[in-house]
Amino acid sequence: MCGIVGYIGKKNATEVVLNGLQRVEYRGYDSTGIAFIKNKSIQIYKKSGRLTQLLSVVQPDDNITNVAIGHTRWATHGIPNDSNAHPHSDNHNNIAVVHNGIIENYRNIKTMLLQKGYNFSSDTDSEVLAVFISSIYDEQINKDITEATRLALAKVQGTFGLLVISKIEPNKIVCARRGSPLILGIGEDDNEFIVASDQTAIVDYTKKVIFIEDDEMVVISNDGYYLKTLDNIAIKTKETSLIEFELGQLEKGGFEHFMLKEIFEQPETIMNATRGRMIQELGEIKLGGLSDFTDILTNMKRIIIVACGTSWHSALIGEYLIESLARLPVEVEYASEFRYRNAPLLDTDLVIAISQSGETADTLEAIREVKRQGVPVIGIVNVVGSTIARETNAGVYLHAGPEIGVASTKAFTSQVMVLLLLSIHLGLLHNKLSSNKAKKLIAEINKLPLQINKILSNKDKIKDIAIQLASSPNVLYLGRGLGYPIAMEGALKLKEISYLHSEGMPAAEMKHGPIALIDKNMPVIVVAMGEQDNKIWSNVEEIRTRGGRIILIDNEGNSAGRVNKEDIIIEVPRSVIEVSAILGVIPLQLLSYYVANHLGREIDNPRNLAKAVTVE
Ligand code: M6R
């Protein structure tokens, strides 16, 4: 989703900001732009399309400046064209703003400004904000761009991550946040600053950061920075943090796409998710982030998991695991639906929020609703220091490293891994799991990196299957038990990056309607994996009888004697059922990747998608 970068310091700000925009490209966008002050006037360059379009009209070396702001836009209000791209300016070209989020009352403000004689050249809510700030500035006796911004923000409803520069006060950037992430990077000698919506844009220059909270402003200049609230109360001290990942993790490392690199990182990311958390000899799990939560974990009676997209699929696996290993009731909710359903929570509930980015607006709002009802909420999050990580009461990090490909892969398997660890932990706490069984599960988990490598080494076969699949406009994914969420996740991966229509569902549901779609042109991917074995083979027969083409994901040796010569089978190493979900999804990730690659899709930045969905 939209990305923001701003820089002030001794380096060439144009270069730093353009580099930062390249770092946030992965979030998904449809236009880009940059503004800086040169020869005492605001220069704005913006283009629809990819960053290369912008680079064709603005070159860092021709535009050396010390203050610049930039933006990648993911269209909400107004189609993705040059004039709707950010930065936006006011009617006098005195200021430039970049804005993430949505100004919900922009129509009322626009009407008021039109009545006062102001004009607009775009369809965006963000231009309204720029003109609104400028109109307040016009009316001020003691002209002050920071105060004009603050007063404007006091009147807007909605969300913003906002940067403002002004040619009248040229050596500063005014920044503000409500509901859209903003991080301040503190560079050399504490008088160089890079502010961005994403840590990836900062890490090239510094690892020292401050997380700006909702309803806070920060003003940065060559002389330093100061923070205050939007209610105009000075913030005297604010903790600094260190970015935890390395620059090398933001490179492709020889792979054609980030997505492929991230699929191949999974043997390692699975180990990172478990490192220091399993005590094999004792059959115990240690989750440091939950150590103060033992009483709540022991006394709660029901778990509700909120998440979106791929994280929602891992939540479904979590439901299965917690119910079977800890015998606790679990409900899985789409965060967006849960947030507005006014669902009654009980004192004995525990909510788990799952999010790779830690910035998903739907999930964040669900968390806020849970906290409003006074129920504890823990996070399972990848991005360290993200809003969800900070707003939940406690949590467990995935430690999967930055996930750049828009289609989530390694974060998904790490989420499932952490949910498995949590399920074992809860099973032990609630005396529903013996330490012997826990030891066996830990032993199986320890085999995973080698088993994943084995699946990855089968990539050429999966690529061949993908090339056959690429000509099918529709693909069905079926599974039972744990195979069902894996089927859902496989279908989501395929549609996201290949744009083929695909649907995942419980295998038994097929006969209640979707079976009408089955004919010789319909490939059906069946995630078998030993789950309800006889039943799933009956479903396979139902498809065969109607001429459907079967692609089977199954445990090694399990299908022997049952496959027809027309069936395609992808085998994965055998494990216990609780662990096998992680193995079952990997061929589906590869399959989607190779289909999309065969079709020439933009795999890391698929159309219309955003990495972190920061609007509701
Ligand atoms: O960052 P989150 O895990 O909260 O994101 C949730 C979804 O937006 C995300 O999983 C989305 O479905 C991905 N594009 C899946 O590949």
Task: Provide a concise account of the structure shown.
Helix content is 36%, strand content 23%. The protein has 616 residues and is of the alpha/beta class. The protein is built from 18 helices and 27 strands.
Can you walk me through this structure?
- This protein is an alpha/beta fold and 616 residues long.
- The protein has 18 helices and 27 strands.
- It has an 8-stranded antiparallel sheet.
- Strand 7 (160-166) and strand 8 (172-178) form a beta hairpin.
- Helix 7 (266-274) runs antiparallel to helix 14, helix 9 (309-326) packs parallel to helix 13 and helix 13 (410-429) runs antiparallel to helix 18 (577-598).
- Bound molecules: 5-amino-5-deoxy-1-O-phosphono-D-mannitol (M6R).
- Residues 308-311, 355-357, 360, 363, 406-408, 496, 609, 612-613 line the site of 5-amino-5-deoxy-1-O-phosphono-D-mannitol (M6R).
The secondary structure category is alpha/beta
Task: Quote the beta fraction.
Answer: 15-25%
What is the terminal separation in angstroms?
Answer: 12 Å
Ligands in the model, by name, code or SMILES, are: 5-amino-5-deoxy-1-O-phosphono-D-mannitol
**Biggest sheet layout:** 8 strands, antiparallel
Which ranges are low-confidence, i.e. pLDDT below 50, for 5 or more consecutive residues?
none
Radius of gyration: 26 Å
What is the residue-mean pLDDT, rounded to a whole number? Answer: 94
Total E-strand runs: 27
Shape: globular
Number of helices: 18
Helix content: 25-40%
Strand arrangement within the widest β-sheet reads 3-2-4-1-10-9-11-15
